Amino acid sequence: MIIVLKQNATPEQINHICNKVKELGLTPQVSRGIEKTIIGVIGQEDKLRVQPLEAFPGVERVMSVMKPYKLASRDFKSEDTIFVMDNGVKVGGKQVVIMGGPCTVENKESLLRIAKEVKKSGATFLRGGAFKPRSSPYSFQGLGEEGLKYLREVADEVGLLVVTEVMDTRAVELVSKYADMLQIGARNMQNFDLLKEIGRTKKPTLLKRGLSATIKELLLSAEYLLSNGNFKVMLCERGIRTFETATRNTLDINAIPVLKEETHLPVLVDPSHGTGNYNYVTAVARAAVAAGADGIMVEVHDNPEEAASDGEQSLVPKRFDAMVKELRAIAHVLGREV
Ligand code: PEP
Ligand code: MN
């Protein structure tokens, strides 16, 4: 249920409506936009009878939300969500954010070398996994807390933000201590306990689309984060499973305009996992920015042959730099910035 308020609704009237909503055992979420203030009501919609609510002073309209995701929808918030990181970097809006770094944090020295390169090219986030979701239990699982420390130290030294994956509810507190943005990996998109836990932290969060998840399911997972109080959420298209085997995944370019229409949340694209092949990464990254992505996340390694994971889809720094230059040119055409 969405309650649209009149332009001249007073704070007293808004409070009165919120109190009524709470009395019914529902949760009101007030969103003050430039044009309109609205109240999103979370909980069983049928507890609210539409007719009486419209009689409340200050109420313009009451809308039943047909979409299963409410807070993530454009109906709830028509303007694009922009959130500001602690160092002032903006996510969403005019800016196209660039995230780069290795698939896995391997050691401090190589992380530092790669971080310096991606920073020089224009990245604002350093990516890298310390807890890795590997298909095989025998593959390298990541350095754990040691990897988180390297990420923090290197990012601080170079002047970057840290985005890194958290796979387990028990690790949320630990990863939050080191990361600026928590990443929920594709394999955990529907780990609902993890979503709730991360929702409660209110930390900036990157939610990746599941391997076989529909856009609706992605938005419902985002709804878990939002309904638990976390509105600093960025969605990520990272390729889905299709019948095609020429590439690791099929990057769903369509998802970008669809998501931009359905939700106010910023949309990131990961062409590394989307293609699985360094040769295709730049082309798909260009397409993503042209299609309206709010950012790009790319795996970078200065010695891909020896990478602990995903070397085949990692760009060497020189290629990453060339890619960012092209993305910048495309962004400018669209009135945006890299
Ligand atoms: C990653 O970005 O490190 C990763 C594992 O990606 P995904 O969850 O999309 O497979
Ligand atoms: Mn990877």
UniProtKB/TrEMBL annotation:
The protein's matches in InterPro entries, at most eight in alphabetical order, are given as:
Aldolase_TIM, Class-I_DAHP_synthase, DAHP1/KDSA, DAHP_snth_FXD, DAHP_syn_2
Record-annotated DAHP synthase ferredoxin-like domain positions: 1-67
**What UniProt keywords are attached to this protein's entry?**
Transferase
Return one Gene Ontology term, BP aspect. aromatic amino acid family biosynthetic process
All copies of the DAHP synthetase I/KDSA domain together span: 88-328
Provide any one GO MF term from the record.
Answer: transferase activity
Pfam families from the UniProt entry: DAHP_snth_FXD, DAHP_synth_1
What is the name listed in the Swiss-Prot or TrEMBL entry for this protein? 3-deoxy-7-phosphoheptulonate synthase
